[in-house]
Amino acid sequence: MTDPRGALVGPGASDTARRERFARAKAIFCESVELPEAERDRVVAAACAGDEALRREVESLLRSDSQDATFLERPAAALLAAGERAPIAVPQLSPGARLGGYVVDSLLGTGGMGEVYLARDTRLRRRVAIKIVGNGQSGERADTALLREARHASVLSHPCICGVHEVGESEGRRFIVMEYVEGETLRAMVARRGPLPLADVLRQGGRIADALDHAHTRGVVHRDLKSANVMVSGEGDTKVLDFGLARWLPDAAARQASASFDTETLALAGTLDYMAPEVLLGGAADARSDIWSLGVLLHEMAEGAPPFRRGTPVDTVSAILKADPPPFRPGIAVGLRLVIRRCLSRKPARRYQCAADVRQALEALGRHGQARQRLVAGLAWAELRPRIVAIAAVALIAAVLLGTGAWLTSRSTSRAAAPMRALLVMPLASPPGEAGGEPPYFAEGLTEALIAEIGGTGIDRVISRTSAMAVVRGRKTPRVIAGELQVDGILDGTVNRTGDRVRLSVRLLKAATGQEVWSTSQERPASEAAALVASIAAAVAGGMNHPMSDEAARRLSAVRAVRPDVQEAYLKGRYEWNLRTEASLRRAIDYYESAVRMDPTYAPANAGLADCYNQLGTVMVGTGSPAGFRPMAAAAAIKALQVDSTLSEAHATLGYIRHYEWQWSESERAFKRAIQLNPSNALAHIWYANLLASLRRFPEALREVERGRELDPFSLVVNTNVGWTLSYAGRLDEAIAQYRKVLAIDPAYVQARLRLGDALQETGQFEAALAEFEEAARLTGGGFSSRTAIAGVYALMGRRKHAGALLDEILRDARGRYVSPSTVADVYEKLGLVDAAFDWLERAYAEHSNHMAYLAVEWHPGLKSDPRYAALMRRVGLE
Q1: I want to staple 31 with a disulfide (CB 3.0 to 4.6 A). Which of 173, 199, 313, 348 is the partner?
Q2: Residue 479's domain spans which residues?
Q3: 51, 224, 273, 290: which is the annotated catalytic residue?
Q4: Does pTM top 0.70 for this prediction?
């Protein structure tokens, strides 16, 4: 059998013919599904005239839709738009009706999914939009459809996305409360004004692309982007509406499964004029199908109409699948034409692969348009003409190159001939001759971020910042560095801020010879400093001839813009965090909290807060109970991961928290994910080694801690942890030697002093242990950790009177300050007061003291034979 167009559609039909037939049926379905029954029958009959099989297929879709209520998943698009309200049935709510703390003012509109009302929030005194399930559409499916939209929008927090304030229920009726956006839709604006000026197209298009990028990086694809779903307020603000058709991207679906979010693919979703070809043919929507819709939207703003709209749905489908976009009218900027054409490539692989690339291309066109205007204002025509031609050529190149991440301000030489597998990133410096240079927190912060981003590309080994600083202080030659660190390459560079622009210039040297093999220089606005670092990291991976995974490439391309003041506060916090003192950690918290107040969605600042809270709850650094600090750390880490689930540092921090909350499998899973995302995250390896040691998995623990040392060979923290792991593994002589190596580098490093004293007393070297503890007390001004250690070794030496007096003194002082109960228990044990020791261990258990995670490996000769010790181990999951 053949259809009226001559295409074979029977059992022997080609896959292409069957897909195109389905697309035509889908188009007629979308056109008719919301029409009254009589009108719907007329439209279907006209569209399928002469093709009874096509008509049966459309009617089958309509019957299925009616039976399973999937019409609820078509949102009431643009119900907030003045002048675009759907036909109004009898509203369910009257003015003055109350839904919880909200009072209804008026009906804004109705649609296939529900009804939307303008209401007043009586508590916060603001206007909101409230959506309820439509009249006659009740039950579990209806509630599920309503909640789906709220759940998709709830993970999004962006100035260009209509926000969801609350999901509520009142007298059995569920509702979602949304931001009220007053203005008109882009559809109405284009209908009223006709094609928009280039500046408006670039501005609105860039904002929409940024909103899509935000959604895509959080795993949400819109699936119904169109001009009626974009609002422009009277002040010119842009809002993307209606995530009721959105679904989780495939990789995000797995991440969100535990939250019971709906991840099904709705094959019939969307609006015909904006549907990508692969979606029309039955494929799943992804970020690239949203980019097609964005291209249609850009065309509509520039030309006044979508490019493939035809007189009938079938003709529209045919145009989308086969026709070229119509020629642009004269005067449309060449660069904009190229951007739109690339968005509308029929093969998804040929489109921009992420919305951030579209935004960058539009921003570049805008900047070059401004440059041209400045020339026009300042030059006579005779001078102007050749320069305009040059600018047009540059803009043309920009539009093409920006899709692949290349910037006009960048330069690069060839890559390394053979892949490099290990890299040292030297601290970034200000260019020679710059007065004063950059403040230390800025250059150090960008250096650390660059190391982390390069590590996230999957390169085998990227040396950490602390070891890079040690190399700088040692003034070592490339050949010596290559020998000591076993690296193939050395990356050095400069950072320079001029006004609101940041430039990074780096060069890759062959470590063995110091010969330059590759270089690049890139510049961006200060708000895009993080994206600039990510772009440089991707370029470095290319320069090292290192292939990146798809996940790493997506993550680097998805780094978003951040307000300069937010970035500044974060970098200051990171600088203070790296000092690792109680005072510096508290200063870091102030900076991180400032960044979060300005931008609650900035994940690195939340992760930084979690790190600070963790450290303030430890015996070595902080002076507070983990019972107070660790819940705050967990909340901050989880918030960071809700915003950016690809942040290695946040996964590592969560693994640290779960370790000391005795959630053993969850901790290990978090550490493995952190290391998968960034194999060069030295702290993730060290903390994972601590977990493995506490579980007595010593061979694995030693491998992880050695991996951490390979990544950060000069770090005092890392090298001390090497000794600590050796000690737990019973290799005390090696541990003692390792601690002494650390103290040879920095005699004032207290943690190594205390760990060395512990190892010495375990081997019976009490006098030597006492000397280490007394030096630690001198360095800390009599800190509790060192004083309890002294009291304990006094007891082992038989100086019980001295031990008891010192312990009484510590307990008196502890009335005004925190002292770790596990350290007090240790003194009582060594005094032979077993019941008192267990009383204090119970206190340590109650506050989830870090010490409790190591009950299986700690040195407790006076307690381990007591049944109470085995019971404690069982209670923390170490049976």
Answers
A1: 313
A2: 422-561
A3: 224
A4: no
